[in-house]
């Protein structure tokens, strides 16, 4: 949809081949769309090339999201943006531990407790070293009111990091 609506080249990268096969089946007819089965943390990517990088519903699968962000910001053009959305963040380390315990119970009930080691909980503080625009923040008063009133809204934060605002973070 991005490739078509924005008239841009779009490349989807994922380690999960099943997801890529499904994406190719659904969107494979798009000429400006390509898929790569690879680990974004180790894939050789050109620097200063991408206009936008999206991380939808996946930050929780990375043990060190700050290192990932630094790496991806370096791949962006000077005015490029990194968007992180649909990933849970927690207010405190204690909330992270509670979520980790729930995840372990969940995966144990499924019979695959080892999968819990691949699911990481992160706090909002993880992003303190970066200049972040919170396009949606469930901690905001307005979001809490909307939730109380059961009005539609995202469940998880939406972060936008601009390369030009994070040059020092990339260099450190």
UniProtKB/TrEMBL annotation:
Molecular function terms, GO-annotated: S-adenosylmethionine-dependent methyltransferase activity
Q: Which InterPro entries match?
A: Methyltransf_11, SAM-dependent_MTases_sf
Which residue numbers delimit the Methyltransferase type domain? 4-83
Any matching Pfam family: Methyltransf_11
The protein's name: Methyltransferase type 11 domain-containing protein
What is the species listed in this Swiss-Prot or TrEMBL entry? Xanthomonas oryzae pv. oryzae (strain PXO99A)
Q: Which lineage ranks, top first, belong to the organism behind this chain?
A: Bacteria, Pseudomonadati, Pseudomonadota, Gammaproteobacteria, Lysobacterales
């Amino acid at each position: 949809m991005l490739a078509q609506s924005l008239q841009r080249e779009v490349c989807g990268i994922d380690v999960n081949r099943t997801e890529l096969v499904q994406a190719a089946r659904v969107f494979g007819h798009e000429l400006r769309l390509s898929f790569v089965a690879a680990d974004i943390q180790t894939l050789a990517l050109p620097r200063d090339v991408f206009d936008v990088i999206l991380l939808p519903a996946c930050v929780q699968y990375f043990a060190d999201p700050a290192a990932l962000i630094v790496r991806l910001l370096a791949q962006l053009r000077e005015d490029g943006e990194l968007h992180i959305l649909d990933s849970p963040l927690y207010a405190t380390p204690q909330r992270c531990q509670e979520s980790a315990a729930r995840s372990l119970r969940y995966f144990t009930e499924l019979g695959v407790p080892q999968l819990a080691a691949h699911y990481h909980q992160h706090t909002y503080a993880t992003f303190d070293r970066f200049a972040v625009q919170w396009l949606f923040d469930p901690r905001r008063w307005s979001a809490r009111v909307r939730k109380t009133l059961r009005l539609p809204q995202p469940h998880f934060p939406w972060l936008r990091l601009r390369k030009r605002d994070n040059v020092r973070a990339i260099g450190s």
